[in-house]
C-alpha cells in the first residue's frame, strides 16, 4: 500500500490479489509494487483524471488494471518504454526535487525535539515506542530493486535524487519513526581518493591497503562541501520532505581502519590487529585522521538538517575490553566529542559488543546499540544510568514469519519493561532476503503494543 498522504487517492487493483493505494494529489509518477518482483509505473496525473468523476479529495475509487496500463502507456514515449526502471524514474525526478527545495527550512536543528524518537534517545517521556531498522532501505524492498540500477552503491550515493528516494522508501512502506541516510561508512575515505570501492557481493575493497606511514598522506582532511556535496544535497532534500527525524551517520575509526588495512571485509582482522600491536604510533595516527574525517562528515550532515547521528563501529566486537580501551576508545571518544556541541542525540552501535557496552557508552554516546546476544535488561545494567538503548530483535526471526517475529518483538518490549530510554530496532541490519511485510507487522506491533513508563 502506498500513499504520500495528500490529495485524492485511488485504489488500484493490480490483479494479483493485492491492491495499492496511490496518492493522486501530487501530479508525479510513482512506482507501484504489484508483487512477484514486478513494478508498474503509474502516472498519477492520468489516474487522477480518470478518477475525477467519481472521487473527491480524500476519497477513494477503484481503477481497473487494463485502463491503468493504457493510461500509463499512453504517456510514455517509445524511448521511455524501452528504458530501465531507474532511467524512467529519473526522468520524473527533477520536478520532485524542486518541490522538496521549496519546503526546506533553514532552522533545522532541533526541529524534531518533541518527536518520540528524539525523546527516547534522551530518555524523556513520550507517547509510543519508536522503531526504525538498520538497513531499512535496500535490497529487501522491491521498490529499491526497481530503481537501483547497475554500478556500485557509491554510484547511487553520488546521485542525490536517487539517494533521497531510496531513503524515503522504507519510511513510506513501514511508517517507521526515523529515516537513516542512504550512504556508506566508507564514503569519506573514497571521496578523498584513498583508492577504495565497494564491490557488489563483497563489500569495501582497497587496491593498495594501508601498510605504512607514507599511506597517511592518502588520507587528507575531508572537505564535505567539496568532497561530498552529493551527500549534503541528499540530506537537504530529505529534511525538506520528511516528517520524521533523519539519522546521519559515520563509520567509527576502528571499523573504517579495518577496511583500509585489510583491503576487504575480514572475519579475524589479522592485519588490523597486527598493525595495532606492532606499530601503535602509526595505528593511532591512522585512527586520528579517520576520527577527523568522521567529525567533518557528521557535522556537515547535522548542519544540513540531520536530527541525530549514529557512529557505526560494526567490527569492534573483535576486540577485548582492554584492547578497545587502549586502541579504540580515544578515537571514538574524539568523534563523539567533536559533535557534542550540536546537541543532537548520538547513537553508538557495534556487533558482538556485549563485553564492550560499558566502554561504548563511556565514549560519549547518548544511546548504545545492543545486538540480539544481550538482553536489554542485562545491557541496561552494563551501561551508565541515563543512557538509552537501541535494539535488539534478532534479524533472522523475520524469516520464520510475521507471527513468530511479532512474538519476538513483544519479548523485546517486555524485557525493556516500558523504560522510556528505548528505541526498538533490530540487533543488526535488515537482511537482503527479508520479507518486507513481516517487518511492517513488527512496526505495527511495536506501535500498538509497546508501552512507555512516565518517569
Strand content: 5-15%
Task: Give the rounded overall mean pLDDT.
Answer: 82
- CATH architecture descriptor of the largest domain: Alpha-Beta Barrel
Number of strands: 14
Sheet of most strands: 7 strands, parallel
* Global outline: globular
- Unreliable residue runs: 1-82, 88-110
Share of helical residues = 40-55%
Topology:
Elements: E1 9-13, E2 19-23, E3 29-35, E4 38-43, H1 44-51, E5 62-63, H2 65-74, H3 78-81, H4 85-91, H5 93-102, H6 116-121, H7 142-147, H8 153-157, H9 160-174, E6 179-180, H10 187-191, E7 196-199, E8 203-206, H11 224-227, H12 229-241, E9 246-251, H13 253-262, H14 270-278, H15 280-303, E10 308-312, H16 321-327, H17 329-338, E11 346-349, H18 357-362, E12 367-369, H19 376-382, E13 388-393, H20 402-416, E14 422-426, H21 436-449
Parallel strand pairs: 1-5, 6-9, 9-10, 10-11, 11-12, 12-13, 13-14
Antiparallel strand pairs: 1-2, 3-4, 7-8
What would your notes on this structure say?
The chain has 21 helices and 14 strands. By secondary structure, the chain is an alpha/beta fold. The chain folds into two domains: 94 residues, no CATH class; 334 residues, TIM Barrel (Alpha-Beta Barrel), CATH 3.20.20. It has a seven-stranded parallel beta sheet. Strand 3 and strand 4 form a beta hairpin. The chain is globular. The two termini are 37 Å apart.
Features:
single chain; 455 residues; alpha/beta; TIM Barrel; 2 domains; 7-stranded parallel beta sheet; 3-stranded mixed beta sheet; disordered N terminus
